[in-house]
Amino acid sequence: MRSRFGVLAATIGLWPGIGCGRHPFADPVDGGGADGVTAPTAPLHLRFEANDFLATGLGLAACEQTCPGVTTSLPGHGEAAQFVGAGGLELTGLENTTWPSFTAALWLRLDAATLVAPMTLFARGFDPLTTAWNTWELFVEPGPRMFVGTTTDDDLARIAGLRAGFPVVGQWGHVALTFDGRSRRLYVDGELRLADERGPLRHDASPLLVGLDRDGGRLVNHLVGALDDVMLFDRALGADEVAALAVP
After folding, report:
1. Do residues 36 and 4 lie in contact, with contact meaning Cβ atoms separated by under 8 Å?
2. Whole-angstrom Cα distance, residue 136 to residue 168?
3. Residue ranges per structural domain of the chain
4. What pLDDT does 206 receive?
């Protein structure tokens, strides 16, 4: 999705057959401690471990153009996927993941010192052959700044902003988007950063996208950086659960 349309998210493959008006936002809110809270298990989970690099738990992801490489993840997390500004993952046949509420979460290390165009992290497309829309998308714009957006029955809307300097180039950070059918919440490193009311989402049979986007039939917005533990949940996680996911 192009920057003027931002759309959110973070998630990955289920089944085989995976192809290789700005709104006010809340002040930063404590996302809740992770003490005593067990990190939830995602129906879709890309761990990017070298011995089973594209396994998702319910099938295998395949690559679009070129596969991401293998790089070292944050301590204790093994390997991660390295994206170099070309190629990525396009996951098809996942219509059964078009849940009315969801959570997309991932670890990100941005490697591009200077961004000249948006970079997509994780998204679900919407009419990608003729439009630049997504049902939801997590992406980074020059700044760098984290953006999130959704295509809803209300309108095409994004929530923008975040603290300057996130994500920090060369450092790992955690990002999660939750949507409960009406409320969108964007968390960074386990803390609530943005929230508003939108919905419900518009879905079609478009694929999930990791590390790139498809606009008007073209592959665009390729990521320069690394991703790990890309997850998609079939419900909106609570703040404590998101905080537990963000523990390194």
Report:
1. no
2. 23
3. 3-245
4. 85
* φ/ψ of residue 97, rounded to 5: -105, 15
Scan for tokens 């690394």, then name that residue. 226
| CATH C-level class of 3-245 | mainly beta
Residue type, 109: R
Give me 84's structure tokens: 């170099």
Residues found in the chain = 248
Tell me the H-state helices in the chain.
239-245
Task: Write the pLDDT tens digit of every residue in 125-167.
Answer: 888 888 778 889 998 887 777 777 777 666 666 665 554 456 7
Half-sphere exposure of 20 (CA within 13 A, CB side): 8
- How do the residues of the chain divide into helix, strand and coil, expressed in percent and rounded to 5? 5, 40, 55
If you search the block for the tokens 């204790």, which residue do you land on? Answer: 76
Which pTM was predicted? 0.82
Q: Identify the residue with better confidence: 211 or 13.
A: 211
Mean pLDDT of the chain: 79
Rounded distance between C-alpha atoms, residue 217 and residue 76, angstroms: 38
Distances (CA, A) of 110 to 141, 151, 207: 11, 26, 24
CA atoms within 13 A on the CB side of 169: 10
Look at the block and give the residue holding tokens 């993840």: 73
